[in-house]
Specification:
Blueprint lengths: L8 E5 L7 E3 L14 E5 L23 H4 L26 E4 L1 H7 L6 E5 L9 H14 L4 E6 L2 H13 L3 E6 L6 H9 L3 E4 L4 H15 L2 E2 L5 H17 L7 E5 L4 H15 L8 E7 L4 H8 L11 H13 L19 H10 L3 E5 L1 H14 L5 H15 L9 E5 L7 H8 L1 H9 L4 H4 L13 H9 L3
The structure holds ligand F0G.
The site of ligand F0G has 21 residues, from helix 4, helix 8 and helix 13.
């Protein structure tokens, strides 16, 4: 395949009533004309695009070239905004698509129909590295020496690891207080980034980091940065690669700030327009019940993409009511505890492209699904469990049929939030629940309790004899 030509890339406002365009050398997180969201767009007809996705397979044998090794840049003709010698990569995207009958059974699927895409296997332990390699590349292209983000923990870990490993720029991360898991906070600290913990939640931190970046000319790496989402398109390419370039029937993904779902829709639409896939999967975005802005707006208030003319009044009224009633997102899946998802409008576009659905699942359903992923696979963090819980719900509703091929995106590694895991399995949690009148076995039906044994061989053998 020929080299990437970057002069045919530009930034483009997604609103059809604006459609402003800007060069790729500008660091923007909103349309300078209307304030809307931006896409990275390409003049595809002037670019070397492969005739078939199979052409990418020639790169599997060339793993010594960091671009061919990367699970993002080996698809570089599909995100051609950077010259090869300017790409910043840390070997992201070596992830696995695992077929899991155990998790499939739990969700009510027939054998060999459930697949789990383990994005927790990225260097920083979450899917964010797919996007951060693209954002870091763009940051360096525009000559940024400082980058920042707000985060529920994974974006900050990802940005921090790119800064520590590449030493190309300085990083300031903004996190909220109280809910960020220690695993994620420890990463930002360990990788040496300046870490500002705001006395507020993620939405507060995002608001502040945007102000700081505007004032100081700092490069912002949240998913309002359209280059980040270009990298996250690669998750879709790898899912297709894992399925021998066939399309699944469903892709199920947790919804937080809605960057992933937005990137997925863009990736799939582009593949269709380029004639590289002949059909598209359906998309299911799963909110936690305690952080369900998209579910409320899409499934209850019927907010739609509407060819890019999204009803802003419905969104404004929703947020006004949220603020007036003092309602704030609250879920044990802290990664997706978000009130105002910044990519809401782009995610509506994805739902339109992929005939999508949105559901909400409770923390109980999330934690049970997470326990099943642990017992039947490599494990995941709570937010990722939402995708399996969502697939189970859609199966129960008959929206997903038992023979559909379903890919659940597991966005973060199980060790990201080991507190949540220990809490679920620990006898102490059961005791606390019993004391508060709740029935522990029901609340933690898949708990795998540690067995406490006296320090003697006889006692241990006694216990082992009673285990079937
Ligand atoms: N799963 C995990 C593990 C996440 O960390 C996030 C988002 C999501 C799902 C939601 O993805 O925002 O693309 O809809 N985490 C962000 C962060 C907000 O700051 O790390 P989304």
């Amino acid at each position: 395949m020929s080299v990437t030509k970057t002069e045919f890339a530009y930034q483009h406002c997604i609103s059809p009533d604006c459609s402003a365009t800007c060069g790729i050398n500008e660091a923007l997180t909103a349309c300078p004309r209307c304030g809307g969201l931006l896409d990275v767009a390409y003049e595809w007809n002037r670019l070397p695009v492969p005739a078939s996705l199979r052409e990418f397979e020639s790169r599997w044998a060339n793993r010594r070239n960091p671009l061919d090794f990367s699970g993002v840049w080996r698809f570089r003709e599909l995100l051609p905004f950077a010259p090869d010698d300017k790409v910043v990569t840390i070997g992201e995207g070596q992830t696995i698509l695992q077929q899991s009958d155990a998790v499939g059974r739990y969700a009510g699927m027939n054998a060999s129909r459930m697949y789990l895409q383990y994005e927790g296997l990225n260097p920083s332990g979450s899917f964010k590295d797919n996007g951060m390699t693209a954002a870091a590349t763009h940051a360096c292209l525009v000559g940024a020496n400082t980058a920042a983000c707000a985060s529920t923990g994974n974006t900050s870990a990802s940005l921090a690891i790119f800064a520590s490993t590449t030493q190309q720029f300085r990083v300031i991360v903004f996190v909220g207080s109280g809910t960020i898991s220690y695993g994620k906070l420890s990463q930002a600290l360990d990788y040496g980034s300046t870490t500002i913990q705001i006395l507020g939640d993620f939405d507060d931190a995002l608001l502040r980091v945007r102000e700081v970046c505007d004032e100081q000319g700092i490069y912002l790496c949240n998913s309002v940065n359209p280059f980040r989402l270009e990298g996250q398109k690669a998750i879709i390419y790898r899912v297709l690669e894992g399925l021998g370039w066939e399309c699944p029937d469903w892709i199920v993904v947790p919804g937080g700030n809605l960057g992933n779902s937005s990137a997925f829709g863009k990736a799939l639409l582009e593949l269709q327009q380029l004639g590289l896939v002949d059909r598209l999967p359906r998309l299911a975005i799963i909110n936690a019940t305690g952080a369900n802005t998209l579910f409320q707006l899409y499934s209850q208030q019927q907010l739609r993409w509407n060819e890019g003319r999204v009803d802003a009044g419905t969104i404004d009224r929703f947020y006004e009511e949220m603020d007036a009633s003092g309602r704030r997102a609250s879920t044990l899946a802290s990664a997706i505890q978000i009130n105002r998802p910044v990519n809401l409008v782009k995610s509506l576009r994805s739902l339109e492209i992929c005939d999508g659905v949105v559901r909400e699942v409770s923390d109980q359903e999330i934690l049970d699904a997470k326990a099943q992923v642990g017992a039947g696979g490599f494990g995941c963090e709570p937010a990722s469990g939402a995708s399996v819980a969502g697939a189970k719900l859609l199966r129960r509703e008959g929206v997903i049929s038992p023979d559909d091929r379903v890919v659940c995106i597991l966005t973060g590694h199980g060790l990201k939030d080991s507190n949540a895991t220990v809490e679920y399995h620990s006898p102490q949690a059961e005791q606390d629940q019993n004391e508060s009148g709740a029935h522990g076995a029901e609340l933690r039906p898949y708990a795998n309790r540690p067995i406490v044994v006296e320090n003697s061989l006889d006692a241990i053998m006694d216990v082992l004899r009673n285990i079937d």
